[in-house]
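Why does residue order matter? Because the sequence determines the fold. Keep that principle in mind as you read this record.
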Amino acid sequence: MMVIPANVQSMWREYLDIVRDVEESRFYEAFSFGDSPAMADELGQLVLSRIKRATAGSVWSYEDAGKPIPKKGDLSVVTDSSGKPLCIIETIQVDIVPFDRVTSEFASIEGEGDGSLTYWRDAHRAYFTRECASSMRVFSDSIPLACEQFKVVYPLPAQSAG
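Structure:
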């Protein structure tokens, strides 16, 4: 079982109080998106607004961190750049796909930029190039990605307004 960080325990407990049949073992991680505070805050807001419903992570980064690849049913707490919990997401699908095989449909539900595959490839090529360099790897168009689709399960839509 993953350890639930102190900064997200309150939100996690609120969620468990509402959805009583959830096993704590479904907790996967608490994290923020991206590799900068600005990106974490921007992408976190896209998730809260239900625009961003997917993310792609390098399989190599999971291996380097010693973490399993997310799987259907996993629950994660999304935080902003300061570690403040924003919401809880549930993984609904994960496909391992080479970078150059990511589809326009996936790019669209990832919800970033203009939602196009061209934007997705440009932005993610830059991101994964930085990520690879930080772990002494070299980016290529065949880098394996865990393309994860998710839904926000907490706060409920009425709770996130205001």
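The two ends are 34 Å apart (CA to CA).
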